[in-house]
Amino acid sequence: MSLADTARSMGKAFRTFGVAAALTFGTQAMAAAPAAPVAAEAAAPVAAAPAAAASDSAAPAVAAEAAPVDKGYYTPMKPTPGKGQPVDKGWTFQDQYSPIGEQGLWMHDVILMPIIVAISILVLVLLLVVMAKFNKRANPVASKTSHNTLIEVIWTLVPVLILVVIAVPSIRLLAHQYEPAPKGALTVKVTGYQWYWGYTYPDNGGFEVISNMLSEEDALKAGEPGHLAVDNRMVVPAGEPIRIQTIGSDVIHAFAVPSLWFKLDAVPGRINEKVLFIKEPGVYYGQCSELCGARHGYMPIAVEALPRDKFEAWVKTQPGGTVGAPAAAAPAAPAAPAA
């Protein structure tokens, strides 16, 4: 074969290869061109989904921000003259506004006072009889009597019966005073400081109210009794049992409110507990009843009992105050699987 024939054969081979390559790559390019818009269209909803989800999640947040927050309301109650506080020329117990107080006052008026008066009169009469009948002038010869069985039996049995009459209602009253609080009762922790009180509400967010005595001038301006008025009262609901827990932060104090028949020591390192029940709304005053230092006489107590709805409104005015059972924590979201 000549050189020219060889060149022509190689040219035909190159042309054949070029046509085959053009047909192959051209077909692939034509097949790939329509797929791009489809992929783009498929990707569009995926990209739009997070935006839609974001807008849906943002809607409740905006609604929550726009919803009004109930911050509660509170106007201190005006005290009633003669109720829950000492009165001029008073010589007996204050009027009682708790069931325990009514029971204790009944025992004092119906049982103790009659027995005390009867024994006092009997002893006075016996003393006058002895003075008149057995003096030296009326009875110059002294009696030689050494024993009298009847008298000895009487003066032994009568005191025993008197003690039994006193003991039965007394033990019943003590037992009622220290009955445990029912389940679900509101708890107030009372802390005695030198020299003021602190009231903590663990069932309503755990906030603490610090209570200090008002000056004489401020108390008179507020229409409250001097040395008993405070800047912040212990506010509680009326008509339901309240669990009072006392503790001292430094020395022994005593939380005492006479018109509620309530007294409980506040001892450092120890929590004492007792139930308080206030029958009706009002303001009730008391004082620390344990000598606790130089300003012992300047840490009064003011308890304000409100209806339940007004008490809850007061709770909402306190920093961190909550009403009702605490909301259950939301379960944690499961971790996303690793890509």
Reported for the largest beta sheet, the result is: 5 strands, mixed
Kindly report the name of the CATH homologous superfamily of the domain at 79-137 and 151-317: Cupredoxins -  blue copper proteins
User: According to CATH, what is the topology of the domain at 79-137 and 151-317?
Assistant: Immunoglobulin-like
Q: What is the CATH C-level name of the domain at 79-137 and 151-317?
A: Mainly Beta
Strand pairing plus helix content: what structural class? alpha+beta
- Number of DSSP E strands: 10
Q: Give, in order, the helices and strands.
A: HHHHEEEHEEEEEEEH
Distance between the termini: 66 Å
Number of helices: 6
Mean pLDDT: 82
Percent of residues in helices: 40-55%
List the helices and strands and how they pair.
Layout: H1 3-32, H2 35-66, H3 99-133, H4 149-177, E1 186-193, E2 196-200, E3 208-211, H5 216-221, E4 234-237, E5 241-248, E6 253-257, E7 262-266, E8 272-277, E9 282-288, E10 300-306, H6 308-316
Parallel strand pairs: 1-5, 4-10
Antiparallel strand pairs: 1-2, 2-3, 5-8, 6-7, 6-9, 9-10
Helix pairs in contact: 3-4
What does this protein structure show overall?
Keywords: Copper, Electron transport, Membrane, Metal-binding, Respiratory chain, Signal, Translocase, Transmembrane, Transmembrane helix, Transport. Residues 1-31 form the signal peptide. It is found in: Cell membrane; Membrane. The chain is an alpha+beta fold. The protein has a domain at 79-137 and 151-317: Cupredoxins -  blue copper proteins (Immunoglobulin-like). The protein contains six helices and ten strands; from the N terminus they run H-H-H-H-E-E-E-H-E-E-E-E-E-E-E-H. Strands 3-2-1-5-8 form a five-stranded mixed β-sheet, with no helix packed on it. Strands 4-10-9-6-7 form a five-stranded mixed β-sheet. Helix 3 packs antiparallel against helix 4 (149-177). The longest helix has 35 residues, at 99-133. The two termini are 66 Å apart. The model is unreliable at 25-64 and 326-339 (pLDDT under 50).
